[in-house]
Amino acid sequence: MSEPILVGAAQYTQAKDANPALDPLGLMIKASYDAIANTGNSNIQNIIDTVCLINSSSRDDEYLPVALSSALGINPRHTIYSLIGGNSPQMLVNHFARDIAIGRRQAVLLTGAEAIYSLHRAARGRTILDWQDNVTLQHLRKNNLPVNYDTLLHMGCDHEKEILKASGGKYYEPNNTVEEAYDLFMPHLMYPFFETSLRHSSGRSVEEHQLYIGRLYESFSRVSSLNPYAWNRQKYSAEELTTISPQNRYVVYPYTIRTVSNITVDQSATLIMMNARDARAMGIDRAKWVYPMGGAELNNIWHVSQRPCLHDSPAIKEAARLALQQSGLSLSDIDVFDLYSCFPSIVEIARQSLGIPEGDKRDLTVTGGLAYFGGPGNNYSMHAIASIVDLIRRNRRLKAMVTGNGWYNSKHAIGIYGAEPPNYPWEDRDDSVLQQAIDNEALPEPVERAEGFLTIEAYMIRYDRGGKPERATTLGRLQDGSRAFANVSDDIGDLRKLERNEIVGKTGEVHYDAVLGINRIKIPHL
Questions:
Q1: Which residues lie across from 299 on neighbouring strands?
Q2: What does pTM read for this prediction?
Q3: What gap in Å lies between CA 116 and CA 451, rounded to an integer?
Protein backbone atom coordinates (compact mmCIF):
# COMPACT_ATOMS: atom_id res chain seq x y z
CA MET A 1 0.00 0.00 0.00
CA SER A 2 2.97 2.36 -0.48
CA GLU A 3 1.95 3.06 -4.06
CA PRO A 4 1.79 6.78 -4.89
CA ILE A 5 -1.69 8.12 -5.63
CA LEU A 6 -3.32 11.41 -6.51
CA VAL A 7 -5.99 12.27 -3.94
CA GLY A 8 -6.66 15.94 -4.68
CA ALA A 9 -6.96 17.93 -7.88
CA ALA A 10 -8.35 21.35 -8.69
CA GLN A 11 -8.06 24.06 -11.31
CA TYR A 12 -9.25 27.63 -11.55
CA THR A 13 -9.74 30.07 -14.42
CA GLN A 14 -10.07 33.69 -13.37
CA ALA A 15 -12.83 35.76 -14.97
CA LYS A 16 -11.57 38.06 -17.71
CA ASP A 17 -13.14 41.07 -16.00
CA ALA A 18 -12.02 40.16 -12.48
CA ASN A 19 -11.55 43.27 -10.33
CA PRO A 20 -9.46 43.04 -8.31
CA ALA A 21 -7.58 40.37 -10.24
CA LEU A 22 -5.64 37.75 -8.29
CA ASP A 23 -1.94 37.52 -9.04
CA PRO A 24 -0.29 34.07 -9.50
CA LEU A 25 0.11 33.55 -5.75
CA GLY A 26 -3.56 34.34 -5.18
CA LEU A 27 -4.55 32.00 -8.00
CA MET A 28 -2.43 29.21 -6.49
CA ILE A 29 -3.93 29.77 -3.04
CA LYS A 30 -7.40 29.44 -4.56
CA ALA A 31 -6.58 26.22 -6.48
CA SER A 32 -4.70 24.76 -3.49
CA TYR A 33 -7.57 25.27 -1.06
CA ASP A 34 -9.88 23.69 -3.63
CA ALA A 35 -7.54 20.71 -4.05
CA ILE A 36 -7.35 20.21 -0.28
CA ALA A 37 -11.15 20.25 -0.11
CA ASN A 38 -11.20 17.86 -3.07
CA THR A 39 -9.44 15.19 -0.99
CA GLY A 40 -12.40 15.11 1.42
CA ASN A 41 -10.07 15.39 4.43
CA SER A 42 -8.81 18.79 5.61
CA ASN A 43 -6.30 17.07 7.92
CA ILE A 44 -4.17 16.32 4.89
CA GLN A 45 -2.55 19.73 5.40
CA ASN A 46 -0.86 18.29 8.50
CA ILE A 47 1.08 15.64 6.55
CA ILE A 48 2.11 17.63 3.45
CA ASP A 49 5.90 17.68 3.72
CA THR A 50 6.66 19.07 0.26
CA VAL A 51 5.27 22.14 -1.49
CA CYS A 52 6.43 22.51 -5.09
CA LEU A 53 5.59 25.36 -7.48
CA ILE A 54 5.95 25.33 -11.24
CA ASN A 55 8.02 28.22 -12.61
CA SER A 56 5.72 31.20 -13.22
CA SER A 57 6.45 33.78 -15.92
CA SER A 58 4.09 36.31 -14.35
CA ARG A 59 5.60 35.99 -10.86
CA ASP A 60 9.05 34.48 -11.23
CA ASP A 61 10.04 34.22 -7.58
CA GLU A 62 11.84 31.26 -6.00
CA TYR A 63 10.46 32.28 -2.59
CA LEU A 64 6.88 31.66 -3.72
CA PRO A 65 6.70 28.12 -2.23
CA VAL A 66 7.41 29.57 1.22
CA ALA A 67 4.81 32.32 0.75
CA LEU A 68 2.22 29.81 -0.43
CA SER A 69 2.94 27.43 2.47
CA SER A 70 2.49 30.27 4.95
CA ALA A 71 -0.79 31.32 3.34
CA LEU A 72 -2.12 27.75 3.49
CA GLY A 73 -0.93 27.10 7.05
CA ILE A 74 1.39 24.30 5.92
CA ASN A 75 4.83 23.71 7.43
CA PRO A 76 6.64 21.57 4.83
CA ARG A 77 10.13 20.15 5.18
CA HIS A 78 10.81 20.84 1.50
CA THR A 79 9.87 23.83 -0.66
CA ILE A 80 10.73 23.64 -4.35
CA TYR A 81 10.52 26.10 -7.26
CA SER A 82 10.84 24.38 -10.63
CA LEU A 83 12.92 25.30 -13.64
CA ILE A 84 11.43 26.45 -16.95
CA GLY A 85 9.73 23.86 -19.16
CA GLY A 86 6.29 22.67 -20.19
CA ASN A 87 7.47 19.17 -19.28
CA SER A 88 7.77 20.19 -15.61
CA PRO A 89 4.34 19.20 -14.19
CA GLN A 90 4.45 15.67 -15.60
CA MET A 91 8.15 15.27 -14.89
CA LEU A 92 7.60 16.26 -11.26
CA VAL A 93 4.61 13.93 -10.83
CA ASN A 94 6.91 11.12 -11.96
CA HIS A 95 9.69 12.31 -9.67
CA PHE A 96 7.44 12.61 -6.63
CA ALA A 97 5.78 9.25 -7.37
CA ARG A 98 9.21 7.63 -7.02
CA ASP A 99 9.97 9.57 -3.85
CA ILE A 100 6.64 8.67 -2.24
CA ALA A 101 6.93 5.00 -3.17
CA ILE A 102 10.42 4.76 -1.68
CA GLY A 103 9.51 6.79 1.42
CA ARG A 104 11.50 9.95 0.79
CA ARG A 105 8.32 12.06 0.91
CA GLN A 106 4.96 11.58 2.64
CA ALA A 107 2.63 13.96 0.81
CA VAL A 108 3.21 16.57 -1.89
CA LEU A 109 1.28 19.67 -2.95
CA LEU A 110 2.19 20.57 -6.53
CA THR A 111 0.82 23.78 -8.01
CA GLY A 112 1.33 26.53 -10.55
CA ALA A 113 -0.34 29.60 -12.03
CA GLU A 114 -0.07 32.37 -14.59
CA ALA A 115 -1.79 35.77 -14.69
CA ILE A 116 -0.41 37.13 -17.95
CA TYR A 117 -3.86 38.26 -19.08
CA SER A 118 -4.12 40.58 -16.07
CA LEU A 119 -0.62 41.94 -16.78
CA HIS A 120 -1.78 42.75 -20.31
CA ARG A 121 -4.97 44.43 -19.04
CA ALA A 122 -2.94 46.61 -16.70
CA ALA A 123 -0.40 47.50 -19.39
CA ARG A 124 -3.28 48.74 -21.55
CA GLY A 125 -4.83 50.76 -18.75
CA ARG A 126 -7.86 48.50 -18.40
CA THR A 127 -7.28 47.64 -14.74
CA ILE A 128 -5.05 48.61 -11.84
CA LEU A 129 -3.01 45.84 -10.21
CA ASP A 130 -2.17 46.17 -6.54
CA TRP A 131 0.46 43.43 -6.65
CA GLN A 132 3.01 45.10 -4.41
CA ASP A 133 5.02 41.93 -3.74
CA ASN A 134 4.99 40.64 -7.34
CA VAL A 135 8.68 40.82 -8.32
CA THR A 136 7.94 40.35 -12.04
CA LEU A 137 5.48 43.24 -12.21
CA GLN A 138 7.82 45.51 -10.23
CA HIS A 139 10.73 44.65 -12.55
CA LEU A 140 8.64 45.36 -15.65
CA ARG A 141 7.55 48.74 -14.25
CA LYS A 142 10.99 49.74 -12.97
CA ASN A 143 12.65 49.04 -16.33
CA ASN A 144 9.70 50.21 -18.47
CA LEU A 145 9.58 46.84 -20.24
CA PRO A 146 6.73 45.69 -22.51
CA VAL A 147 4.42 42.95 -21.28
CA ASN A 148 4.96 40.19 -23.83
CA TYR A 149 6.17 36.61 -23.80
CA ASP A 150 9.52 37.55 -25.33
CA THR A 151 10.28 39.82 -22.37
CA LEU A 152 8.96 37.37 -19.76
CA LEU A 153 10.84 34.38 -21.20
CA HIS A 154 14.14 36.26 -21.39
CA MET A 155 13.63 37.43 -17.80
CA GLY A 156 12.84 33.88 -16.75
CA CYS A 157 15.96 32.45 -18.37
CA ASP A 158 18.16 35.10 -16.75
CA HIS A 159 16.62 34.28 -13.37
CA GLU A 160 17.04 30.55 -13.93
CA LYS A 161 20.73 31.08 -14.65
CA GLU A 162 21.08 32.96 -11.34
CA ILE A 163 19.30 30.20 -9.40
CA LEU A 164 21.41 27.45 -10.97
CA LYS A 165 24.63 29.37 -10.46
CA ALA A 166 23.82 29.88 -6.78
CA SER A 167 23.02 26.18 -6.33
CA GLY A 168 25.96 24.88 -8.36
CA GLY A 169 23.72 23.63 -11.17
CA LYS A 170 24.37 23.93 -14.90
CA TYR A 171 22.27 25.98 -17.30
CA TYR A 172 21.90 24.67 -20.85
CA GLU A 173 21.36 27.38 -23.45
CA PRO A 174 18.36 26.48 -25.63
CA ASN A 175 20.21 27.64 -28.77
CA ASN A 176 23.69 26.95 -30.07
CA THR A 177 25.72 29.93 -31.31
CA VAL A 178 24.62 29.55 -34.95
CA GLU A 179 20.92 29.37 -34.00
CA GLU A 180 21.44 32.52 -31.92
CA ALA A 181 22.81 34.33 -34.97
CA TYR A 182 19.46 33.79 -36.70
CA ASP A 183 17.45 34.98 -33.68
CA LEU A 184 15.68 31.67 -33.03
CA PHE A 185 15.29 31.87 -29.25
CA MET A 186 11.51 32.25 -29.06
CA PRO A 187 9.67 28.91 -29.43
CA HIS A 188 7.25 30.20 -32.08
CA LEU A 189 10.23 30.81 -34.36
CA MET A 190 11.52 27.23 -34.09
CA TYR A 191 8.40 25.07 -34.42
CA PRO A 192 7.72 26.11 -38.06
CA PHE A 193 10.89 24.24 -39.04
CA PHE A 194 9.28 21.07 -37.68
CA GLU A 195 5.99 21.81 -39.42
CA THR A 196 7.42 22.44 -42.89
CA SER A 197 9.63 19.35 -42.55
CA LEU A 198 6.57 17.30 -41.53
CA ARG A 199 4.60 18.66 -44.46
CA HIS A 200 7.24 17.65 -46.97
CA SER A 201 7.68 14.17 -45.48
CA SER A 202 3.91 13.61 -45.61
CA GLY A 203 3.71 14.36 -49.33
CA ARG A 204 0.88 16.84 -48.75
CA SER A 205 0.74 20.05 -50.74
CA VAL A 206 0.85 23.43 -49.01
CA GLU A 207 -2.94 23.77 -49.21
CA GLU A 208 -3.58 20.18 -48.14
CA HIS A 209 -1.34 20.51 -45.11
CA GLN A 210 -2.91 23.76 -43.95
CA LEU A 211 -6.30 22.02 -44.02
CA TYR A 212 -4.74 19.07 -42.18
CA ILE A 213 -3.59 21.41 -39.41
CA GLY A 214 -7.02 23.00 -39.33
CA ARG A 215 -8.82 19.68 -38.97
CA LEU A 216 -6.46 18.58 -36.21
CA TYR A 217 -7.06 21.74 -34.20
CA GLU A 218 -10.76 21.80 -35.03
CA SER A 219 -11.00 18.65 -32.87
CA PHE A 220 -9.15 20.45 -30.04
CA SER A 221 -11.48 23.42 -30.34
CA ARG A 222 -14.47 21.09 -30.02
CA VAL A 223 -13.16 19.73 -26.70
CA SER A 224 -12.39 23.23 -25.42
CA SER A 225 -15.90 24.44 -26.26
CA LEU A 226 -17.26 21.92 -23.75
CA ASN A 227 -14.72 22.61 -20.99
CA PRO A 228 -15.94 25.03 -18.28
CA TYR A 229 -12.31 25.84 -17.35
CA ALA A 230 -11.29 26.75 -20.93
CA TRP A 231 -10.18 30.30 -21.63
CA ASN A 232 -11.70 30.26 -25.12
CA ARG A 233 -14.86 28.19 -25.53
CA GLN A 234 -15.59 29.22 -29.11
CA LYS A 235 -15.83 26.29 -31.52
CA TYR A 236 -13.89 26.81 -34.75
CA SER A 237 -13.99 25.05 -38.10
CA ALA A 238 -10.80 23.99 -39.87
CA GLU A 239 -11.26 26.82 -42.34
CA GLU A 240 -11.74 29.42 -39.61
CA LEU A 241 -8.50 28.29 -38.00
CA THR A 242 -6.29 28.45 -41.07
CA THR A 243 -7.84 31.11 -43.34
CA ILE A 244 -5.90 34.38 -43.18
CA SER A 245 -7.89 37.43 -42.07
CA PRO A 246 -7.31 40.61 -40.05
CA GLN A 247 -8.44 38.65 -36.97
CA ASN A 248 -6.37 35.58 -37.85
CA ARG A 249 -3.09 36.77 -39.36
CA TYR A 250 0.06 34.72 -39.60
CA VAL A 251 2.12 34.90 -36.41
CA VAL A 252 4.90 32.95 -38.09
CA TYR A 253 4.52 30.81 -41.19
CA PRO A 254 2.72 28.43 -41.37
CA TYR A 255 0.89 29.27 -38.11
CA THR A 256 -2.02 31.67 -37.67
CA ILE A 257 -3.00 33.30 -34.39
CA ARG A 258 -5.66 30.63 -33.83
CA THR A 259 -3.23 27.71 -34.16
CA VAL A 260 -0.63 28.71 -31.55
CA SER A 261 -0.60 28.56 -27.77
CA ASN A 262 -2.45 31.37 -26.03
CA ILE A 263 -0.32 32.39 -23.07
CA THR A 264 -2.48 35.44 -22.30
CA VAL A 265 -4.56 33.71 -19.63
CA ASP A 266 -5.14 33.72 -15.85
CA GLN A 267 -5.22 30.07 -14.75
CA SER A 268 -4.03 27.87 -11.90
CA ALA A 269 -4.06 24.19 -10.98
CA THR A 270 -3.05 22.08 -7.99
CA LEU A 271 -2.42 18.36 -7.39
CA ILE A 272 -2.00 16.53 -4.08
CA MET A 273 -0.08 13.25 -3.94
CA MET A 274 0.51 10.75 -1.12
CA ASN A 275 0.85 7.02 -0.60
CA ALA A 276 -2.09 4.65 -0.55
CA ARG A 277 -1.28 3.36 2.94
CA ASP A 278 -1.63 6.81 4.52
CA ALA A 279 -4.70 7.59 2.43
CA ARG A 280 -6.39 4.48 3.76
CA ALA A 281 -5.39 5.36 7.34
CA MET A 282 -6.85 8.85 6.91
CA GLY A 283 -10.08 7.48 5.51
CA ILE A 284 -9.78 9.13 2.12
CA ASP A 285 -12.43 7.59 -0.09
CA ARG A 286 -10.90 5.05 -2.51
CA ALA A 287 -13.18 6.41 -5.22
CA LYS A 288 -10.96 9.50 -5.16
CA TRP A 289 -7.72 7.58 -5.68
CA VAL A 290 -6.03 7.92 -9.07
CA TYR A 291 -2.79 6.06 -9.68
CA PRO A 292 0.14 7.30 -11.71
CA MET A 293 0.62 3.96 -13.46
CA GLY A 294 3.84 4.70 -15.31
CA GLY A 295 6.14 7.48 -16.30
CA ALA A 296 9.45 8.40 -17.88
CA GLU A 297 11.44 11.48 -18.91
CA LEU A 298 13.95 11.82 -21.74
CA ASN A 299 15.35 14.65 -23.87
CA ASN A 300 15.88 14.88 -27.59
CA ILE A 301 19.20 16.11 -28.95
CA TRP A 302 19.33 19.46 -27.25
CA HIS A 303 19.92 21.84 -30.18
CA VAL A 304 17.40 21.62 -33.00
CA SER A 305 19.85 22.17 -35.85
CA GLN A 306 21.92 19.18 -34.70
CA ARG A 307 19.05 16.66 -34.89
CA PRO A 308 19.36 14.27 -37.87
CA CYS A 309 15.58 14.42 -38.42
CA LEU A 310 13.54 17.56 -37.83
CA HIS A 311 10.14 15.87 -37.54
CA ASP A 312 10.56 13.04 -35.06
CA SER A 313 11.07 12.56 -31.31
CA PRO A 314 13.12 9.59 -30.10
CA ALA A 315 12.57 10.95 -26.57
CA ILE A 316 8.77 10.63 -26.80
CA LYS A 317 9.02 7.20 -28.41
CA GLU A 318 11.35 5.76 -25.77
CA ALA A 319 9.77 7.48 -22.76
CA ALA A 320 6.33 6.24 -23.80
CA ARG A 321 7.67 2.71 -24.20
CA LEU A 322 9.10 2.82 -20.66
CA ALA A 323 5.89 4.29 -19.19
CA LEU A 324 3.65 1.73 -20.90
CA GLN A 325 5.95 -1.08 -19.82
CA GLN A 326 5.76 0.04 -16.19
CA SER A 327 1.97 0.33 -16.33
CA GLY A 328 1.54 -3.09 -17.89
CA LEU A 329 -0.53 -1.54 -20.69
CA SER A 330 -0.19 -1.22 -24.44
CA LEU A 331 -1.00 1.87 -26.50
CA SER A 332 -4.32 0.29 -27.50
CA ASP A 333 -5.32 0.21 -23.81
CA ILE A 334 -5.14 4.01 -23.56
CA ASP A 335 -8.62 5.53 -23.82
CA VAL A 336 -7.70 9.19 -23.99
CA PHE A 337 -4.56 11.28 -24.51
CA ASP A 338 -3.48 14.78 -23.71
CA LEU A 339 -0.70 15.54 -26.17
CA TYR A 340 1.16 18.76 -25.50
CA SER A 341 -0.05 21.24 -28.10
CA CYS A 342 1.83 24.53 -28.02
CA PHE A 343 1.99 24.25 -31.83
CA PRO A 344 0.43 21.74 -34.23
CA SER A 345 3.80 20.20 -35.15
CA ILE A 346 4.42 18.84 -31.65
CA VAL A 347 1.02 17.12 -31.69
CA GLU A 348 1.82 15.57 -35.06
CA ILE A 349 5.30 14.52 -33.91
CA ALA A 350 3.93 13.01 -30.69
CA ARG A 351 1.23 11.11 -32.54
CA GLN A 352 3.75 9.65 -34.97
CA SER A 353 6.29 8.86 -32.25
CA LEU A 354 3.67 7.12 -30.11
CA GLY A 355 2.28 5.19 -33.06
CA ILE A 356 -1.27 6.59 -32.90
CA PRO A 357 -2.72 5.86 -36.36
CA GLU A 358 -4.15 8.55 -38.61
CA GLY A 359 -7.92 8.56 -38.18
CA ASP A 360 -7.78 7.13 -34.64
CA LYS A 361 -11.02 8.08 -32.89
CA ARG A 362 -9.52 8.63 -29.44
CA ASP A 363 -9.30 12.23 -28.24
CA LEU A 364 -5.80 13.74 -28.29
CA THR A 365 -6.70 16.33 -25.63
CA VAL A 366 -8.80 16.34 -22.48
CA THR A 367 -8.73 20.13 -22.02
CA GLY A 368 -8.90 21.58 -25.53
CA GLY A 369 -5.18 22.27 -25.80
CA LEU A 370 -2.96 25.29 -25.33
CA ALA A 371 -4.48 27.29 -28.18
CA TYR A 372 -8.07 27.21 -26.82
CA PHE A 373 -8.12 25.91 -23.26
CA GLY A 374 -5.16 28.17 -22.58
CA GLY A 375 -1.39 27.96 -22.35
CA PRO A 376 -0.57 29.04 -18.79
CA GLY A 377 3.20 29.03 -19.20
CA ASN A 378 4.99 25.99 -17.84
CA ASN A 379 1.92 24.77 -15.93
CA TYR A 380 -0.42 23.65 -18.74
CA SER A 381 0.05 19.89 -18.20
CA MET A 382 -1.05 20.17 -14.60
CA HIS A 383 -4.46 21.21 -15.91
CA ALA A 384 -4.45 18.14 -18.15
CA ILE A 385 -3.61 15.88 -15.21
CA ALA A 386 -6.28 17.51 -13.01
CA SER A 387 -8.81 16.95 -15.81
CA ILE A 388 -7.75 13.31 -16.10
CA VAL A 389 -8.16 12.80 -12.35
CA ASP A 390 -11.76 13.94 -12.72
CA LEU A 391 -12.36 11.68 -15.74
CA ILE A 392 -10.98 8.59 -13.99
CA ARG A 393 -13.03 9.25 -10.86
CA ARG A 394 -16.12 9.21 -13.07
CA ASN A 395 -15.03 6.15 -15.08
CA ARG A 396 -12.82 3.77 -13.10
CA ARG A 397 -11.97 1.75 -16.19
CA LEU A 398 -10.47 4.66 -18.08
CA LYS A 399 -6.73 4.82 -18.84
CA ALA A 400 -5.06 8.06 -19.90
CA MET A 401 -1.69 9.29 -21.18
CA VAL A 402 -0.21 12.77 -20.81
CA THR A 403 2.80 14.12 -22.73
CA GLY A 404 4.69 17.18 -21.48
CA ASN A 405 7.11 19.12 -23.69
CA GLY A 406 9.71 21.79 -22.95
CA TRP A 407 11.49 24.24 -25.24
CA TYR A 408 11.53 23.07 -28.88
CA ASN A 409 10.50 19.39 -28.81
CA SER A 410 13.47 19.19 -26.42
CA LYS A 411 12.45 17.98 -22.94
CA HIS A 412 9.77 15.32 -22.62
CA ALA A 413 7.85 13.64 -19.81
CA ILE A 414 5.21 10.94 -20.20
CA GLY A 415 2.63 9.86 -17.61
CA ILE A 416 -0.03 7.15 -17.60
CA TYR A 417 -3.00 7.24 -15.22
CA GLY A 418 -5.72 4.86 -14.11
CA ALA A 419 -7.68 3.54 -11.12
CA GLU A 420 -5.31 0.70 -10.34
CA PRO A 421 -1.64 0.35 -9.37
CA PRO A 422 1.05 -0.07 -12.02
CA ASN A 423 2.28 -3.48 -13.09
CA TYR A 424 5.80 -2.57 -11.90
CA PRO A 425 6.28 -0.35 -8.84
CA TRP A 426 7.69 3.15 -8.87
CA GLU A 427 11.40 3.05 -8.06
CA ASP A 428 14.59 4.87 -8.94
CA ARG A 429 15.54 3.95 -12.48
CA ASP A 430 18.62 4.85 -14.51
CA ASP A 431 17.67 5.70 -18.09
CA SER A 432 21.06 7.27 -18.89
CA VAL A 433 21.96 4.59 -21.44
CA LEU A 434 18.84 5.45 -23.46
CA GLN A 435 19.55 9.16 -23.13
CA GLN A 436 23.13 8.69 -24.27
CA ALA A 437 21.98 6.67 -27.29
CA ILE A 438 19.74 9.60 -28.33
CA ASP A 439 22.50 12.16 -27.74
CA ASN A 440 25.06 10.13 -29.70
CA GLU A 441 23.15 10.80 -32.92
CA ALA A 442 23.82 14.56 -32.75
CA LEU A 443 25.17 16.24 -35.87
CA PRO A 444 27.96 18.84 -35.67
CA GLU A 445 26.91 22.47 -35.23
CA PRO A 446 25.68 24.08 -38.47
CA VAL A 447 28.22 25.70 -40.77
CA GLU A 448 28.52 29.36 -39.83
CA ARG A 449 29.93 30.55 -43.19
CA ALA A 450 28.34 28.50 -45.94
CA GLU A 451 29.28 28.62 -49.62
CA GLY A 452 27.91 26.47 -52.43
CA PHE A 453 24.49 24.87 -52.73
CA LEU A 454 21.99 24.22 -49.95
CA THR A 455 19.09 21.75 -50.18
CA ILE A 456 16.28 23.06 -47.99
CA GLU A 457 14.91 20.76 -45.26
CA ALA A 458 12.65 23.27 -43.51
CA TYR A 459 11.86 26.98 -43.36
CA MET A 460 9.90 29.68 -41.58
CA ILE A 461 8.69 33.23 -42.27
CA ARG A 462 8.34 35.88 -39.58
CA TYR A 463 5.86 38.75 -39.77
CA ASP A 464 5.28 42.18 -38.32
CA ARG A 465 2.22 42.81 -36.15
CA GLY A 466 0.24 43.84 -39.21
CA GLY A 467 0.77 40.46 -40.84
CA LYS A 468 3.38 41.61 -43.39
CA PRO A 469 6.21 39.11 -44.01
CA GLU A 470 9.58 40.48 -42.91
CA ARG A 471 12.16 37.71 -43.18
CA ALA A 472 12.39 34.06 -44.20
CA THR A 473 14.94 31.61 -42.80
CA THR A 474 15.79 28.18 -44.19
CA LEU A 475 17.61 25.20 -42.71
CA GLY A 476 19.16 22.61 -44.97
CA ARG A 477 22.08 20.48 -46.05
CA LEU A 478 25.14 21.49 -48.01
CA GLN A 479 26.58 19.18 -50.65
CA ASP A 480 28.91 17.57 -48.10
CA GLY A 481 25.93 16.72 -45.84
CA SER A 482 26.60 19.40 -43.22
CA ARG A 483 23.78 21.62 -41.98
CA ALA A 484 23.47 25.37 -42.48
CA PHE A 485 20.95 28.14 -41.92
CA ALA A 486 20.37 30.80 -44.55
CA ASN A 487 18.02 33.75 -44.85
CA VAL A 488 16.22 34.10 -48.16
CA SER A 489 17.81 36.75 -50.37
CA ASP A 490 15.96 40.00 -51.03
CA ASP A 491 15.88 39.34 -54.78
CA ILE A 492 12.92 37.01 -54.27
CA GLY A 493 10.69 40.09 -54.04
CA ASP A 494 7.40 39.27 -52.33
CA LEU A 495 8.00 36.75 -49.52
CA ARG A 496 4.37 35.69 -49.82
CA LYS A 497 5.50 33.47 -52.68
CA LEU A 498 6.93 31.20 -50.00
CA GLU A 499 3.49 30.90 -48.38
CA ARG A 500 2.01 29.45 -51.56
CA ASN A 501 4.88 27.35 -52.89
CA GLU A 502 6.70 24.40 -51.34
CA ILE A 503 10.43 25.10 -51.17
CA VAL A 504 11.45 22.16 -48.95
CA GLY A 505 13.49 19.84 -51.18
CA LYS A 506 14.64 22.67 -53.47
CA THR A 507 18.31 23.52 -53.82
CA GLY A 508 19.60 27.08 -53.96
CA GLU A 509 22.92 28.86 -54.10
CA VAL A 510 24.13 30.02 -50.69
CA HIS A 511 26.82 32.46 -49.65
CA TYR A 512 27.97 34.14 -46.45
CA ASP A 513 27.14 37.83 -45.96
CA ALA A 514 30.07 39.17 -43.95
CA VAL A 515 28.32 42.48 -43.26
CA LEU A 516 25.26 40.89 -41.63
CA GLY A 517 27.10 37.83 -40.30
CA ILE A 518 24.59 35.36 -41.79
CA ASN A 519 24.21 33.11 -44.81
CA ARG A 520 21.89 34.04 -47.68
CA ILE A 521 20.21 31.71 -50.15
CA LYS A 522 18.81 32.41 -53.60
CA ILE A 523 15.62 30.42 -54.04
CA PRO A 524 15.22 28.83 -57.48
CA HIS A 525 12.39 30.04 -59.72
CA LEU A 526 9.01 29.51 -58.07
A1: 411
A2: 0.97
A3: 44
